[in-house]
TrEMBL record:
Domain annotation Prenylcysteine lyase: ranges: 121-483
Single GO molecular function: prenylcysteine oxidase activity
Cofactor field: FAD
Keyword Lipid metabolism among record annotations: no
Origin species: Coturnix japonica
Keyword Nucleus: no
GO process annotations (BP): neutrophil-mediated killing of bacterium; prenylated protein catabolic process; prenylcysteine catabolic process
Keywords: FAD, Flavoprotein, Glycoprotein, Oxidoreductase, Signal
Family classification: Belongs to the prenylcysteine oxidase family.
Gene3D superfamilies per UniProt: FAD/NAD(P)-binding domain (3.50.50.60)
Protein name: Prenylcysteine oxidase 1 like
Length: 494
């Protein structure tokens, strides 16, 4: 007997219907270029969303952790850069908790702002006295600054709700617009000085305090964009913490947790192919064993695609993918073990020198941006900070390597100097455009977020966004991408 007509039609109709997202196979393999915080956290988030069966290859030509590096002095390790994490950094807090790490015990120390001739602002042990000095010198500028930063941060914190509900953004502009509307977009195109003067902060406060903070964090002036400035100033005036054992443990821990395959090699290019109507990406690299390549369903680039930072190429893409405009700020970290020359700062008797951290104003004669008496990454219960008359470990930030005369200016004598040079942050005045996130169908660029603001938490937020974006695009869940009026949508989903 012939089968009924419905038995013949149903399979044909089923073939025409879209496959439910849950039924679609996840990517077989994903490549991540870079094993710094961006690469390690995006690998973690990608596995969270796609599942443990996805093969994750992470390419890194240097050490895992990238800029989250340490140096060793007298068998103790010290952070060479990127030392502080803001108290509101929720992704970083979650990483530490998930990995079973601990926040490092804070060792208190006073700060001051140095003009090259004298201290223009000095912190004391008394909170009320500090407030009085700020008011005496600058009026209510510090309150106006605090209100401005808090308003920006309150809107920025919306990103965690959006991401918790699975929403993602296909461009940095869309991400910013969802948080603060056109005002946030404008904050990437005007200077922090202009924004603060507009809300009533005085020019003197900008020159003395704001300039000192930005020189310490970005090595740049008050002409950095307002949004990047707000993120830096939030970290300067809020409570901060670091990871016991070193911040780089977050990167190695996340990669170990995801069981990612770390390939120690330099990626030289990505070429586009196709398989069964779907894009396939070939990653080319060189390692100690020679040249190699591998194919992937998806690639995330977590290293800067700028001529000064990378030289790998994209092949077979139409339109072609080029390096993006903009340069990076040269940054030099000198970790010096020695005796501070307190006389240079106006304290002939080193026992009377009270500061553990020295920021500097934007003065042409000054050859360093900031310096601080740093503590090791492992702090025992009985640890105490070295007194100024003792040999201590100081971290000096500058734009150029310090010569012998400059070292002699800052230190009476020293046992060792370890110098690290890197183009650490974008030179914000070198371009007004923001890089894209989506380079191709399943090819994403993570590091472009640094042109919005450069901090550990901004990179973690961008990593979560890329992972969500990749997941939503793979399963064609377009309702979770670039949605408008998200605050209302999130409230109705609760």
């Amino acid at each position: 007997m012939a089968p009924p007509l419905t038995a013949l039609l149903l399979p044909a109709l089923a073939a025409l219907l879209p496959v439910p997202a849950a039924a679609r196979a996840p990517p077989r393999s994903i490549a991540v270029v870079g094993a710094g915080l961006g690469g390690s956290s995006v690998a973690y988030f990608l596995q969270q969303h796609f599942g443990p069966q996805v093969q994750l290859d992470v390419y890194e030509q240097g050490g895992v952790g990238g800029r989250l590096a340490t140096v060793t002095v007298n068998k103790q390790q010290y952070e060479s850069r990127a030392a502080s994490i803001h108290a509101l950094s929720l992704h970083m807090q979650d990483f530490v908790k998930t990995l079973g790490l601990r926040q490092r015990r804070e060792v208190p120390g006073k700060s001051a702002v140095f003009s090259g001739e004298h201290f223009v602002l000095e912190e004391t042990d008394w909170y009320l006295l500090n407030l009085f000095r700020l008011w005496w010198h600058y009026g209510i500028s510090f309150l106006r600054l605090q209100m401005w930063v808090e308003e920006v941060m309150e809107k920025f914190m919306r990103i965690y709700k959006y991401q918790a509900h699975g929403y993602a953004f296909s461009s940095l502009e869309e991400l910013l617009r969802s948080l603060g509307g056109e005002a946030f977009i404008n904050m990437t195109q005007r200077s922090v000085a202009e924004a603060l003067l507009e809300v009533g902060v005085t020019q003197r406060f900008v020159d003395d305090v704001i300039a000192a903070v930005l020189r310490s964090s970005y090595g740049q002036s008050v002409l950095v964009p307002a949004f990047a400035g707000a993120m830096s100033l939030a970290g300067a005036q809020g409570s901060t913490w670091a990871v016991e054992g070193g911040n780089k443990l977050v990167c190695s821990g996340l990669l170990k947790l995801t069981k990612a395959n770390v390939i120690h090699g330099r990626v030289t290019g990505v070429s586009l192919h196709s398989s069964e109507g779907r894009a396939l990406y070939q990653v080319h690299y060189t390692s100690s064993e020679g040249q190699g390549s591998a194919f992937y369903d998806m690639v995330v680039v977590s290293t800067a695609l700028h001529p000064s930072r990378s030289n790998f190429s994209f092949q077979n893409f139409e339109p072609p993918i080029d390096n993006f405009p903009g340069t990076f700020q040269p940054s030099v970290t000198s970790v010096v073990h020695g005796y501070l020359n307190s006389s240079y700062f106006g304290f002939p008797d080193p026992k009377l020198f009270p500061f553990a951290s020295i920021l500097t104003t934007d003065t042409p004669a000054l050859f360093f941006n900031a310096m601080d008496n740093i503590c090791p990454v492992n702090i025992s219960a009985g640890f105490r900070r070295k007194q100024p008359q003792e040999a201590a470990v100081w971290r000096v930030l500058s734009q150029q390597p310090l010569d012998k005369q400059q070292l002699k200016t800052l230190f009476k004598s020293y046992y060792s100097v370890q110098v690290t040079e890197w183009p650490s942050h974008p030179r914000y005045d070198s371009t007004k455009s923001l890089p894209p996130i989506v380079l191709h169908e399943n090819l994403f660029y993570l590091s472009g977020v640094e042109w919005v603001a450069s901090s550990m938490e901004m990179i973690a937020v961008a990593a979560k966004n890329v992972a969500l974006l990749a997941y939503n695009r793979w399963y064609q869940d377009l309702e979770k991408i670039d949605q408008k009026d998200l605050m209302h949508k999130v409230k109705t989903e609760l």
